[in-house]
Amino acid sequence: MSKIKTIGVLTSGGDAPGMNAAIRAVTRSGIYNGFAIKGIYRGYDGLINDEVKTFTTEDVSGIINRGGTILRTARSMEFMTKEGMEKAYETCKKEKIDALVVIGGNGSLTGARNFANEFNFPVVGLPGTIDNDLYGTDATIGYDTTMNTIMECVDRIRDTANSHERIFFVEVMGRDAGFLAQNCAIASGAEAAIVPEETTDVDQLACFMQRGIRKSKKSCIVIVSESPKCGAMYYAERVKKEFPGFDVRVSILGHLQRGGSPSAYDRILASCLGAAAIEALMQGQRNVMMGYRNGDAVYVPFDECIRTDKPFDKRLITVLDELSI
Ligand code: F6P
Q: If you take atom 14 of ligand 1, which residue's CA is the nearest one?
């Protein structure tokens, strides 16, 4: 195995608050430990098109508090092809990049795993996604900030919901995972959450609405995980039709959930995992994502974190049910 001298770092997929803190940590820890660091712009597309810049410690100054990613990001279709990966490998050879740190979610780490396997190339991943849906890590970079953003939004929605005595269906991101919806429902004192991990039909919906009203609650907030078929609009329409006595509104929070300055938790998580990624490469680790479990940085093989569904803690459903009476 040849010695690693230069490490490339890129962000890929949906941006997440704390990605900049991770880029900073990889760069500073890499330079501290004697490596050259190259920033790769626009995710895997930038690797294919040779959008690469040598980073100094100054290049990552003043970014720990900034949302988004200074490296930009993309969901590269070309990198999913053999030709695309070959072009990316050519860039690595040209730029003398001997190892990669990839910051992103499931799709990005799948790309990282495929590239590492195809070219026997050292790659370490960092979990960067607001969805928190990666197996093997208690938290992902961006999740905490987004939860706080959603909580603040729901607090505001509660004011108007109370004033007008309305039912609000608030749709949050999370793609196929309900971590954001379930935990934000608890954090914001919502009456219910509708998550993909739990099948909820309209009768259950009616149950908790009526329960809320019986307890003389004049308004009700239901947090719904985004879904192309049964998002907030779907539930609101059904309630309007089947329970016409209720005044229903929908609020889809959308991409504002991904922006904003990262929380202290996300900055610390990103800093520790970024430094741990460099340490991992120094120890000869390959094909792993850096996870964070019970206060420790751990290595999670790509195959494990990509293929395994993160377990959903069903006790959270009970907690919400009990507390929303
Ligand atoms: O994976 C992060 C995420 O924010 C998901 O929660 C959401 O479904 C998706 O990205 C939205 O992606 P886009 O940026 O393509 O709209």
A: 14
| Structure-token match 């070309």, residue found | 78
140 within 8 A of 103, measured Cβ to Cβ = no
Contacts of 14 (CB under 8 A, 6+ apart): 73, 75, 105, 129, 130, 258
Query: Domains of the chain, with CATH numbers?
Result: 6-142+262-307 (3.40.50.450), 144-258 (3.40.50.460)
pLDDT digit string (tens) for 203-214? 667 676 667 665
Position in ligand 1 atom list of the atom nearest CA 257: 4
**pLDDT number for residue 156:** 98
Distance from the CA of 175 to the center of ligand 1, in angstroms?
7
* Best of 19, 175, 195, 310 for a ligand 1 pocket test (most atoms within 8 Å of beta carbon): 175
Nearest residue (CA) to ligand 1, atom 12: 14
Separation CA 274–CA 126 (nearest Å): 7
Question: Which residue bears the tokens 């001298």?
Answer: 5
167: closest CA among 216, 234, 239, 229? Answer: 239
User: With a threshold of 0.90, does the pTM exceed it?
Assistant: yes
Per residue in 293-313, pLDDT (tens digit) is: 999 999 999 999 999 999 999
